[in-house]
Structures are given as C-alpha cells and as structure tokens.
Design brief:
9 helices, mainly alpha, 205 residues, globular, 80% helix
C-alpha cells in the first residue's frame, strides 16, 4: 500500500514538473517576438541606411542637439508601428528615398539646422520606418514585445551612431578635424546618391 502511495506521489510530481517546463517554454517562445522586433530592422537595407544617416546627422550637429533624438526616435517608431497596414509599398519606398536624399544632401552641404527641425525630421522618419516594420507583422505576433524590441534597437543605433560621429569629428582645435568633416560630407553625398537611385527605381516601376 505504501509503495503504491509513493508511486502516486512520484507520478504527480513528474506531471507538475512537466507542466512547469511547458509553461516556461511558452514564455520563452513569446519572448522571441521581442528579439524579432530588435532584429527586424537589420533585414531591411532602408532601415540600416536611414537610421545610420539620422544618427550621423545628429552627431554632426553636436551632442547638445542630437541628444534629443534618444527620446524622439524610439517614440516615433512606436507611433508608426500601428500604421503599418495603411501605407502602400510604393508610397513608402518613395518617401524613404526622398528622406534619404534630403538627409544626404544636408550632410553633404554641412547644413546647420535647428534642434526643432532635427527632431521633426527624425520623428517623421521614425514614424515611416515604424510603419514599414509594422507592415510585416503576422497575426500571431505579440505587438507589445515586438514594439519593445524595435524601440530598444532604435534607441541603441541612434545613440551609438551619434556618439561615434561626435567622437570621429573631434574638436575644432584638433588638426585632423577638417578632413574628418570632409569624410562626413562625402558620406552624405553617397547617401544622397543612394536615395536618388532608389527614387528612380520606385518611379520607374
């Protein structure tokens, strides 16, 4: 009798352990949507170019102006994410190309825009790219986790790119600062050229 009683307790304990393991597996699987949101922008060349260009633009204007993007850019991504089903692919592609061309020209010309204009450009860009990422969401995707991952990676890319640009440009007293400014302007020219090619492809299709 005691042996059967012990076997019953062992069987019950095994069932409870399996149930806990299954629940933990479900939670881990749901966390995959967070990582999908964080990695999804790296699958789109437009995200990589535009996010990097925005960070370089902010860094070229100085840390005091660019630091506002640490809040503005992730917020724009979150605002744009629910709008993913509204914009068409062609219109979004043309808007991305126009934004790429505009940011590239500002970098190439070393334009000193005010902080309010920088925040407006960055917010608008983030809304568009948030919508583009949201258009690829499936019905089973946890949108809260996806949005959290997207916002985190947006914050990280903008902050790191801006900080690296500030460090790269150096100070006015640094003798190497002029050629570094020229390098940033040359990068802006390449970004503008890519935006022009993208616009031509979208209009031709």
């Amino acid at each position: 009798m005691k042996l059967k009683f012990r076997r019953g307790w062992i069987a019950a304990a095994l069932l409870l352990a399996q149930g806990g393991a299954a629940e933990a597996h479900i939670v881990a699987a749901r966390l995959g949507d967070f990582y999908m949101g964080a990695l999804h922008p790296f699958t789109d060349l437009q995200d990589v170019i535009l996010w990097t260009a925005t960070g370089v633009l902010a860094g070229s204007l100085g840390a005091s102006r660019g630091r506002w993007l640490i809040l503005v850019f992730p917020l724009g991504l979150l605002v744009g994410l629910p709008l993913g089903r509204i914009f068409g692919a062609a219109s979004a592609g043309l808007a991305d190309a126009a934004m790429m061309l505009a940011i590239g020209l500002m970098l190439a010309a070393a334009t000193r825009i005010p902080t309010s204009a920088l925040c407006a450009i960055s917010f608008g860009l983030a809304v568009m790219r948030g919508a583009a990422n949201g258009a690829d969401l499936g019905p089973d995707t946890d949108r809260v986790l996806f949005a959290a991952g997207l916002a985190c990676v947006g914050y990280t890319i903008i902050t790191l790119t801006m900080a690296l640009t500030v460090v790269f440009r150096g100070t006015e007293s640094d003798g190497s600062a002029p050629w570094r400014t020229i390098a940033v302007r040359a990068l802006g020219g390449w970004i503008a050229a890519i935006g022009l090619m993208m616009a031509s492809i979208v209009l031709a299709s």
